[in-house]
Amino acid sequence: MKLAEDAYLNTIRIDNTNIKALFNLACVQEELNKNDELQITIDKITSLKPSSSNHFHILGLALSRLKSGRYMDRAIEYFKKAISDNPSSIETYRALASLYIDSNSPEKAYELYKKINITELDYRDLSLEYANCLVHINEIKEADKIYENMLKKEKTNIAALNGKAMIYRLTGNFERAEIIYRDIIKRDKLNYVAYYGLSQCRKFTENDKEIYEQLESRIEKKSNSFAFFSLGKIYNDLKNYKKAAFYYREANKIRNKRMNFDKTEYTNRIDSIKGIFNTKFRNNIKLHGNLSELPIFILGALRSGTTLIEQIISSHPRVFGAGELNYIKQVAYEKDIAKNDRQQFPNKVLTASNIKRDAEIYLDKINKLSSDKSITRITDKMPTNFIYLGYILSMFPKAKIIHLKRHPVDTCLSIYFQNFNTEHKYSFDLNNLIFWYRKYHDLMVYWESVYGDKILSINYNDVIDNSERTTKLIIEYCNLDWDESCLTHYESNRVIHTSSQWQARQPIYKTSKERWRNYEQYFPELLEGLSDLE
């Protein structure tokens, strides 16, 4: 590593505008934990002024690959400029689409892919990237076709096999997924994505020793967050909580290097929302919303049980489970409106006509999700819709709001144990996670004070301990007739995109209660930071 650093430094002394050398130097310095030198190198990269589409592309690529996530927005700007200057650059389209996927904006990636004639290009890697995007936007059948066609040509294509296994996992066919993941690992013992997928298919036992010992021996050669998250999950299954805690910490350290969670910006965002959606606003606006009863919003902290509740409700024959929809956030920030015509959220809601318009846009989006005429309710289980609760009830005063509550430390541990996308920047650092959870808790206390009569709060433990009674309470609250299928929710074959895929397809079990007690000595920060909220 030191020799590589010296070589790149020599190159830069000759040409201090050499982007590739600067980028490679930054990567080496990051690995060597030379943070002061790294910042100097990054400053040099960001001070460069691109002069051509290729220059914009290379600079965007360099910034997007740096482990620090604070340069993602600038990387996106550079890629857009490169495309504007050279609309035929397929590689730039791919790079930008990949960045959108990584930042949890798959719809934007999809729009980019539509601009490329993928079928005529017959470009293998591009087709696989497109299939991955289709999975993210829930176009499972179309993605499956691409994987199937690819495997007809190349039976051992690892990327296509991983894609096929992921689809089996999303649709609850864990046995088929496991067969494929094991086959991939036999062919490629360093395929950490396959190890991770396999770890999510079921609970591991001592009988799986060969697999997890093989993985453990490999990561000594190359650290990888997928590998560490996999081992964390496996050792948790094996009840070796000390090892599980170690691997989860290592996984999060790697992921957190690419994150830049701004506490001040997040606080200002929450405060601006509280400043608008108060009791006076509620009383003034209550006659201006849409009276549709179609949407059911299931929200709360991540990992609080929202997937389980949606699985229960969507087992009802009159309900369509839409999963985690980004629609509320998109409509709030007017992503479907020309950039120059957008109004600022939350201030825009002070104009009643905007609320009516936004409600219609949201309804139009969810009405396209199901063609079944018997459906009378559609669930939206985006947990972080708790931020927009006042906005939601302004648009839909008759909407059903189900808020899930779970033990704070159990919730945060479960968040910390998941390999989330970059939208949840706070989740990879315990101090940031505690800060975020306390903001969530404070905001929900505020919403209860303003809209308490509109919210059904469900305690996760009640779902576990009194499942039938709690299920009947929820179905009644949603103004639905009782249906016994809601008690056998685990038999549903609907697609589940969240990290609760396996758990939500099991009969209700109690091992997820008070799991934090297994880890209290390994994560004392969580107990110290959240004990007053229990």
List the keywords:
single chain, 534 residues, mainly alpha, 5-stranded parallel β-sheet, 27 helices, 58% helix
**Spatial order of the strands in the main sheet?**
2-3-1-4-5
Q: In percent, how much strand structure appears in the residues?
A: under 5%
Please outline the major beta sheet: 5 strands, parallel
Q: Can you tell me the CATH topology of the domain at 268-533? A: Rossmann fold
Task: Name the average pLDDT.
Answer: 88
Low-confidence sequence ranges: none
Helical proportion, percent range = 55-70%
Number of strands: 5
Query: Structural class, from helix and strand content?
Result: mainly alpha
What Rg do the Cα atoms give? 24 Å
Terminal Cα span = 47 Å
The global form is globular
Assigned CATH architecture of the domain at 268-533: 3-Layer(aba) Sandwich
User: DSSP helix count?
Assistant: 27
CATH superfamily of the domain at 268-533: P-loop containing nucleotide triphosphate hydrolases
Write down the CATH class of the domain at 268-533: Alpha Beta
Task: Explain the overall architecture.
With 534 residues, this protein is mostly helical. It has a domain at 268-533: P-loop containing nucleotide triphosphate hydrolases (Rossmann fold), CATH 3.40.50. The chain is 58% helix and 4% strand. It is built from 27 helices and five strands. The chain has helices at 2-14, 19-31, 35-47, 53-65, 72-85, 90-102, 106-114, 118-121, 124-136, 140-153, 158-170, 174-187, 192-199, 209-219, 225-237, 241-256, 263-276, 279-285, 306-314, 327-332, 352-367, 389-395, 408-416, 430-451, 460-465, 467-477, 524-530; strands at residues 295-300, 319-321, 377-380, 400-405, 455-459. Strands 2-3-1-4-5 form a five-stranded parallel sheet, with helices on both faces. Helix 10 (140-153) runs antiparallel to helix 11. It starts with a helix and ends with a helix. The mean pLDDT is 88.
